[in-house]
Structures are given as C-alpha cells and as structure tokens.
Amino acid sequence: MDGCVLAGLSMGGQIVMDFHRQFPHRVRGLVLADTFPAAETPEGVRTRHTAADRLLREGMGPYADEVLEKMVAPYADPQVKAHVHRMMTATRPESAAAALRARAARPDYRALLTQVTVPALVVVGADDTYTPVADAEAMHAALPDSVLHVIEGTAHMPNLERPDEFNGALEKFLARVGPAGG
Fold first, then answer.
1. What DSSP character marks residue 24?
2. Fewer CB in a 10 Å sphere around the end CB: N or C, the chain?
3. Domain residue spans in the chain?
4. CATH of domain 4-39+108-177
5. Considering the chain, what is the average pLDDT of its residues?
6. Burial status of residue 76 (CB atoms within 10 A of its CB: 0-12, 13-18, 19 or more)
C-alpha cells in the first residue's frame, strides 16, 4: 500500500487525525502520542483563549516556567527539562497563541477513530496530566487495529524523556506496517 505513516504528539496528534479525516487514502498507519480526539469543552475553550491572551501580554517565559513540569515529568533529566524550556521560550507568542486558539476550535475526532482502517499506535506517558492514560486507553479501544504503549516514568513528552523506549515502540510498529508499496 502506498501512502505514509503519520505520527503526531499532542497537538500534532490532532493534526494527524484531521489529515486522516481529509485524506484517508493517503495514510497507511497512524501514530498518536499523548493526544486525545475529543473536541474542546466550553471551559477548555475559555481557558485556551485566556492563555492565548496571556501569552500575547507576557510572552512565553512565564507560561513555560509554569507548565514545564507538566510537559516533562518533574523528575525528568535536567537536560531534557532545559531543552523543552528552551523550545517553549523560543516560540513566538503570536504563534503559540494562534495554536491555542486553533485547538480551542478543533472538531471531535472520536467517531472518526472507529472508522480508521489502517494500523495505529497509541503512545502515552504514564504520568501525563494533559493526556491521562485513560484517554489513551479510550482511543486504543475506539481504533479497530491499534496497539497501546504506555511509557512509565514520563509525562507529556515520552519521546524526549525516554527516547529509546519511544523509538523502540515506533520501530516495532513501523515494522508491522511495512514499507510503502509492500
């Protein structure tokens, strides 16, 4: 089967789901990491817009300081924490605010997941407070052909916190999906 395997973490996972919604014939596998398919709640919409306004007023520094230990576990390697903090503070506040507003307006992908006909890998950090394991389990249950991989000792960015385990799960999944045209 020709096509691509799409992988996305957090907001990237929602982008992957939307790509699949629009172009299912171009996808031969999905990797959904630390993401969730539900539309934003009314409270979540307000929270995201408030956060976007705050970023435009205060810049990325205060926000990055506040959420760093939700992005990566409080016990994460200090170098990983510093790397994530640098990535966050290097982001333009206007771009981050636009992303927050877009996430506030996202559609509900839960029904879509039940119609996915390609293999999927659902990955989640065991200590992710943004995407609890229960959300990943629900996605796994909704997807007709999926594997769930929970990575212990990580939060929202297991790809950075435990790259060997994350990459191992990804490698195993890609071997299962096989090469394009295969």
1. G
2. C
3. 4-39+108-177, 42-104
4. 3.40.50.1820
5. 96
6. buried
Helix residue ranges, H only, the chain? 11-22, 42-58, 60-71, 78-90, 93-104, 110-113, 133-142, 158-161, 163-177
Nearest residue to 151 via CA among 115, 179, 126: 126
Q: What is the pLDDT of residues 1-55, one digit of tens each?
A: 578 999 999 999 999 999 999 999 999 999 999 999 999 999 999 999 999 999 9
Report how far residue 64's alpha carbon sits from residue 43's, in angstroms, rounded to the nearest whole number.
22
Per DSSP, the three-state class of 118 is coil
Confidence grade of residue 180 (pLDDT, cut at 50, 70, 90): confident
Counting residues of the chain whose pLDDT is more than 90, the rounded percentage is: 96
CA torsion sign for 69, 88, 16, 179 is: negative
pLDDT value of position 179: 83
d(CA 64, CA 92): 12
Query: What does the pLDDT read at residue 182?
Result: 61
Using only C-alpha atoms, the chain has a radius of gyration, in whole angstroms, of 17
CB contact at 8 A, 73 and 161:
yes
Measured in residues, the chain has a length of: 182
